[in-house]
Amino acid sequence: LYFSGGEAGSPDTARDPRGFAVKFYTEEGNWDLVGNNTPIFFIRDPIQFPNFIHTQKRNPQTHLKDPNMVWDFWGLRPESTHQVMFLMSDRGTPDGFRHMNGYGSHTFKMVNAEGTPVYCKFHWKPQKIKNLMADEAARLCGEDPDYAIRDLYNAIERGDYPTWNLFIQVMTFEQAEKWPMNPFDVTKVWPHGEFPLIPVGKMVLNRNPKNYFAEVEQSAFSPAHVVPGVEFSPDKMLQGRLFSYTDTHFHRLGTNYLHLPINCPYRARAHNTQRDGPACFDNQGDAPNYFPNSFNGHVECPRSAESKYTVTGDVARHESANDDNFEQPRVFWQKILNEDERTRLVENIFNAMKDCKPFIQDRAIQNFGKVDAEFGNRLRKKIDTYISQKDARPRI
């Protein structure tokens, strides 16, 4: 299990999505379930992924974190509203890694032994959910930036093993065709009332890494790493990630990163035509490096073939920003959060964008007003009060 976060050395309690990646070492190879601690994401179009990541990094001129970059992008991509509300709520600052949910986030396809496929989503549920209030999270950023990793390590060392239960949601192909929303849109959830959680397993963390660099820093996860029975759906963000992670691993760890002990499938032996390159371990001996061949080379595995699916319609690039971006955020505001949580959400958003340029604030408030008029009005009132107080300060 790997929890990713911000830059190396960044505080564990900063308001930021936490990665939640799990590597399964199976008899048929490794399966990586690479997700986050939220069931949704900021964008649904993979072409926007590099742009989104740039907004979360530092300003190229000042080398400072820049709220104008962040809120400008979020405001121009209204599909991010759902995830932004999750992030700015209490859920954006979990109390360590042990007390937060994990999600595969994307829609995947699972195929049974008879070859029947269904769509599914993966959910990890901890023993208990705990979140930090914004002021406590900010205090820990300065006083104990390693708060979450310290808590996780110490809990495992004393035998208080963190545990997550694994659930899936299942949607048949027929249900997917009739569902009023796009079931492959990672900015939306599948309502539990329509697609209930089905328990399938449990994960227990019962030992710490013996060497952090070897087992954590060199670990590499990719949603492209699957095993027979787990396949990809038409989720466009998922399809974009299938390429980008491997490309990043080549840059970070080298072309033979899958040979590293933490990444190699130790319960199965890989046979392919990949050879040479830096940090190559055994190079597969004298096995042929081409396919097909007439010698002692690898053979095809029919069980690994992707199940067939039907494709219809025209292929063209289209802009999806005007899809329904506010119905599910409205449910989150009106039905999921209580009044205290709504108040903290407004306060957290205000603090995050109070010093942004006015036109960026206006755009964000308009988007939140489309979620719920009261939501937008409460933000507008706080921003206006802050600006008037700021203007009234004596200038020295």
TrEMBL record:
Q: Which UniProt keywords are present, listed alphabetically?
A: Heme, Hydrogen peroxide, Iron, Metal-binding, Oxidoreductase, Peroxidase
Which biological processes are named by the entry's GO terms?
Answer: hydrogen peroxide catabolic process; response to hydrogen peroxide
Residue stretches making up the Catalase core domain: 3-299
Q: Which residues form a coiled coil?
A: none
- The organism's superkingdom is given as Eukaryota
Q: By its UniProt entry, which SUPFAM superfamilies does this protein fall under?
A: Heme-dependent catalase-like
Recorded GO CC terms: mitochondrion; peroxisome
In alphabetical order, the GO MF annotations are: catalase activity; heme binding; metal ion binding
SMART domains attached to this UniProt entry: Catalase
Instruction: Supply the PROSITE patterns for this chain.
Output: CATALASE_1 (PS00437), CATALASE_3 (PS51402)
UniProt record similarity statement = Belongs to the catalase family.
Protein name stated in the entry:
Catalase
Q: Which organism is it from?
A: Ancylostoma duodenale
Query: Upper taxonomic classification of the species?
Result: Eukaryota, Metazoa, Ecdysozoa, Nematoda, Chromadorea
